Amino acid sequence: MTHVAVLGAAGRMGQAVCHAVETASDLTLASRLDAGDDAATVAASGAQVAVDFTVPSATEANVHALIDAGVHAVVGTTGWDEDSLGRVRDHLQAANAGRAGAADPQLGVLIAPNFALSAVLAMRFAAQAAQYFESAEVIELHHPGKVDAPSGTAVHTAQGMAAARREAGLAPMPDATETALEGARGADVDGIPVHSVRLRGLVAHEEILLGNPGEQLSIRTDSFDRSSFMPGVLLGIRQIGTRPGLTVGLEHLLDL
Fold first, then answer.
1. If one looks up domain 2-111+227-253 in CATH, what number appears?
2. For NAD(+), which residues are the binding ones (predicted)?
3. 184, 135, 187, 195: which is closest to 161 by C-alpha?
4. How far is Cα 197 from Cα 10, in angstroms, rounded to an integer?
């Protein structure tokens, strides 16, 4: 039985995670924390794994506190960049260097831009396809309560596509735009345009467009309810104890 703490438990995602943990036969909900609660207290609840669905301004500090407390972390909060990931990676390396005994298992942190299995597969398919198409763009669509743009999923998707294009030695994508309103061509993520839509009624959606002369490939993932993220969250909770160090992306836990 794995004991789990949920940070951001009062939020919509946090509530869904709490319900998923409570209904899983191999998991126990050890504590619920929200804004103003100290993540360092998680260990006192007996939690072995903490799930963070808070806000970008708080998540990194929460993860460092969990590492100091000896608790594995599964993080769905977005807003991470290479500098913040590097700090977590370094902290884990230092912490695990002092946890050599069997009584002190190596700590792991999973940071996933998206826990929906359809989104993880869409990102993987997009990276595989990117090398075969001259043009590629990403459109992400979310509810207006989302605080970051573009979404972490869209950034992760674009980065994977850009890496595949570089590895294939592709030239920059064609774009004859000379004049444009600021933002009209979206955000530039490693050379891939990423467009953000915020619209009432949406939950979480992404469309990847790839084009060649005479053909287009569209890859789309839609999450209509937050329950779509729960299988991925539970997978992370169950596996993070076997993955020391920092893991970025749920795809590393799947047999892809």
1. 3.40.50.720
2. 8-13, 37, 76-78, 112-115
3. 135
4. 25
- For residue 225, give both structure tokens: 């309810």
Q: What is the pLDDT, as a whole number, of residue 103? A: 67
108 has binding-site annotation: no
The crossing angle, in degrees rounded to 10, of helices 82-97 and 56-68 is 10
| pLDDT one-digit tens code per residue, 201-240 | 999 999 999 999 999 999 999 999 989 999 999 999 999 9
Predicted pLDDT at 186: 96
Whether 114 has a binding-site annotation, put simply, is yes
Catalytic residue numbers, as ranges: 142, 146
Q: Distance between CA 181 and CA 153 in Å, rounded?
A: 25
Domain residue ranges in the chain: 2-111+227-253, 117-224
pLDDT of residue 105: 84
Pairing mode, strands 215-223 and 49-52:
unpaired
The answer to whether 221 is a known ligand-binding residue is: no
Closest CA to 173 of 151, 194, 153, 154: 194
